[in-house]
Design a protein that fits this description.
- The protein has about 550 residues and is mostly beta strands.
- It contains four helices and 43 strands.
- Among the domains are: about 180 residues, 7 Propeller (Methylamine Dehydrogenase, Chain H), CATH 2.130.10.10; about 80 residues, Thrombin, subunit H (Beta Barrel); about 40 residues.
- Helices cover about 5% and strands about 45% of the residues.
- The longest helix has 20 residues.
- The radius of gyration is 31 Å and the shape is elongated.
- GO terms for molecular function: actin filament binding.
- Keywords: Repeat, WD repeat.
Length: about 550
């Protein structure tokens, strides 16, 4: 591919020159900070091209390197520029004429490709340059008047010594030396005291698909990305460290409690890893024989886990398979109650199936129909009085579990009411049906049946009639996303629920208020929101396709 470089006036966008001369991709360019202005480019064709202007025109070309020329930079005073290459060389040129004046010494030099270079930012450090290399080292060079460079200091960057520790970027910013590794670790050194241990910052390189908050410290956040990286964050501080597992498998589903991490990838296995502080210890796994689609822990007894597969669910106790249940429908999401006595399974058909869990047996108790698309996520509220679900048709529903108990007691509510009362209620019901039809408000949809049953004097909701249980919709009409809902989370006091969607937005609802009183965070994550968690009643953490983890503070209306 032919290289491409352009210079334009910042205010008008007008082109200010032609930059021909490269036959392959341009890797770096630099603009001389003082007059007369110059532009230098370098690339994969091993060339260093020099342009005069404006308007800029090709002046000359150098082929002093024998491999890719990765970076070019002018000195702060505009007197020199330097190029570094995969041939392990650094060459210094005169900034005005582009004549070669010297090279970096090979003695104590880099043993691998040099990927980046940065000059000292002021007159005091004008003769110093910082370079980084594939040999995982960073070096500070002193450039003499004759243009030759000698190593002044070699910086030790933290890391395990793997490929991810190769240094690919650097910057000399005021009093700080900054390096960036292939694995995304940013190390910040003090220019005045380079022997001091650097401050390390890091994060994810791939989309972050899961979040977990540790109960012992609500400020501790664990995030995971599908490439297998787990990062610990401290709210208000930021990056705390990476949790290195002995077996670094990819992660699709992720959950964590105080002393254990549970994850699944794409190899049909569920992993349990012991967590001691910021370190991962022993790990064990179980092969469930199918690809896990969702994972839920019974938080009061975290050794109990429910895993959904395409045709059903698998109940686990530690790393032992308690039971594998074929449910007869395509499963898309699941959740198990904190005490492990109840499970909710969502299907491709949009139905929620409620099961009681006793030992290794799941007994169906209810089928809830409200969603019009495949269920994508289910979560119990912390006080277990409600649960919320979201679907691929952009709708979320909050269900109230409190009224279920009276139906489960076995009392027949129709027998407990007198004949006259029942007669009046039946008449009232048919009157409401007639009025609805006459007003052309009747449709075949579920929403109309909900309206009809709620309007008559009978105490039953439409969902109760269908399921035989007293599960009521606590909050509905949560149709404010424009794409599928990927995740949802409850606040610690169970007063709010947040939803995250492929539409890049996070929406926060107060369950005691109408859905229209929502708080919307637009453009929370480029590419979509994939995970949510609350740290307190006014703080929600989100992550997404853009590999960011963000903390949002909000104020209730």
């Amino acid at each position: 591919m032919k290289g491409c470089t352009a210079v334009a006036w910042w205010d008008s966008g007008t082109n200010v020159g032609e930059f021909d001369g490269h036959s392959r991709r341009v890797l770096s360019c630099a603009f001389k900070p003082t007059r007369p202005f110059r532009v230098v480019t370098c690339g994969e064709d091993f060339l260093v091209n020099f342009y005069e202007g404006p308007p800029f025109k090709f002046k000359l070309s150098h082929r002093d390197h024998s491999n890719f020329v990765n970076c070019v930079r002018f000195s702060a005073d505009g007197s020199k520029f330097i190029t570094v290459s995969s041939d392990k060389k650094g060459i210094i040129y005169d900034a005005k004429t582009a004549d070669k004046v010297g090279e970096l010494s090979s003695e104590d030099g880099h043993k691998g490709s040099i990927y980046a270079v940065s000059w000292g930012p002021n007159s005091k450090q004008a003769s110093l340059v910082l370079t980084v290399s594939a040999d995982k080292s960073a070096k500070v060079w002193d450039i003499s008047e004759d243009g030759c460079g000698k190593v002044k200091k070699t910086l030790t960057c933290p890391g395990s010594g793997g490929v991810e520790d190769m240094l690919v970027g650097c910057l000399w910013q005021n009093e700080y030396l900054v390096t960036v590794s292939l694995g995304g670790t940013v190390s910040i050194f003090s220019a005045s005291d380079p022997d001091k241990a650097p401050v390390s910052l890091s994060g994810h390189m791939k989309n972050v698909n899961s979040l977990a908050i540790l109960k012992s410290n609500q400020k501790s956040i664990l995030s995971s990305s599908y490439d297998g990286l787990i990062v610990k964050w401290i709210e208000g501080i930021g990056f705390s460290g990476k949790l290195e597992r002995k077996v670094n498998t990819q992660i699709k589903c992720f959950a964590a409690v105080e002393e254990e991490i549970i994850s699944s990838g794409f190899d049909n296995k569920i992993w349990r890893v012991s967590l001691h502080g910021d370190q991962c210890a022993d790990s064990d796994c179980v092969d469930i024989g199918s690809q896990p689609k969702d994972l839920s822990l019974a938080l009061l007894s975290p050794e109990l886990a429910l895993v959904s597969i395409d045709s059903g669910v698998v109940l686990l106790h530690g790393t032992k398979v308690v039971s594998t249940t074929n449910l007869g429908f395509t499963v898309t999401a699941c959740a198990i109650s904190p005490d492990g006595t109840e499970a909710i399974v969502g299907g491709q058909d949009g139905k929620l199936h409620v099961y009681s869990v006793k030992g290794d047996t799941l007994t169906e108790e209810a089928i809830l129909e409200k969603h019009r698309g495949a269920v994508t996520v289910i979560r119990y509220s912390p006080d277990v009085s409600m649960f919320a679900s979201g679907d691929a048709n952009r709708e979320a529903v909050v269900w109230d579990r409190v009224s279920r108990e009276s139906i489960r007691t076995g009392v027949d509510p129709w027998k407990s009411r007198g004949f006259l009362t029942l007669h009046c209620e039946i008449v009232s019901f048919f009157v409401m049906v007639f009025l609805a039809i006459s007003c052309l408000r009747f449709t075949a949809g579920v929403a109309t049946w909900n309206f009809l049953f709620a309007s008559c004097s009978s105490p039953f909701k439409a969902s109760e009639i269908r399921s035989g249980l007293g599960v009521q919709v606590k909050l509905k009409n949560m149709l404010y996303h424009s794409a599928r809902i990927n995740c949802l989370a409850w606040s610690p006091d169970s007063s709010m629920v947040a939803t995250g969607s492929l539409d890049t937005c996070v929406i926060i609802y107060d369950v005691s208020k109408p859905a229209s009183s929502r708080i919307t965070i637009k453009g929370a994550h480029l590419g979509g929101v994939y995970a949510l968690a609350f740290t307190d009643e006014c703080s929600v953490v989100s992550s997404g396709e853009d590999a960011f983890v963000r903390v949002w503070k909000f104020t209730l209306q």
